[in-house]
Design brief:
The protein has 132 residues and is mainly α. Among the domains are: 30 residues; 34 residues. The chain is 55% helix and 5% strand. The chain has a two-stranded antiparallel sheet with strand order 1-2. Strand 1 and strand 2 form a beta hairpin. The radius of gyration is 42 Å and the shape is elongated.
């Protein structure tokens, strides 16, 4: 077998392919640059537009007014009173300073031995299916 004949490259064809590749790459870069600039301009327009904050301001004002309200009865017979949160926190701190033990609930009293023996233990839950 004989060796294949060496191929000779055509310099003008190589130059043409290189020119087409460079021009194509340039077109892609130019297109991407234009797209990025268009998106940036769109974002700048959005940032320059003032936001409508009226609803937020109204909500904030209503919440602040509710927090600053005078005390009012929620359930007078039960003795439940609604007071501003700052005042409630101040009252809790004052109570704890007066009596630190009041900050925790009292432990439930332990049943006496005679009361424990007189009361039968609760029946375990039935695991048998209902016949019905």
């Amino acid at each position: 077998m004989s060796a294949p004949a060496p191929r000779h490259s055509n310099p003008s064809a190589v130059a043409a392919l290189l020119a087409v590749g460079v021009l194509g790459l340039g077109a892609v870069v130019a297109t991407l640059t234009a797209l990025v600039r268009c998106e940036q301009a769109s974002n700048e327009v959005e940032k320059a537009t003032p936001a409508n904050t009226r609803a937020y301001q109204e909500l904030t004002a209503a919440q602040r007014a509710e927090l600053a309200e005078e005390p009012q009865w929620v359930d007078k017979p039960a003795g439940v009173l609604s007071i501003p949160i700052d005042r409630a926190m101040t009252l809790v701190v004052e109570d704890i300073r007066r009596d630190p033990a009041a900050a925790t609930r009292a432990a439930a009293p332990k049943p006496s031995a005679s009361a424990a023996s007189a009361t039968p233990p609760p029946a375990p839950p039935s695991s048998a299916p209902d016949a019905g």
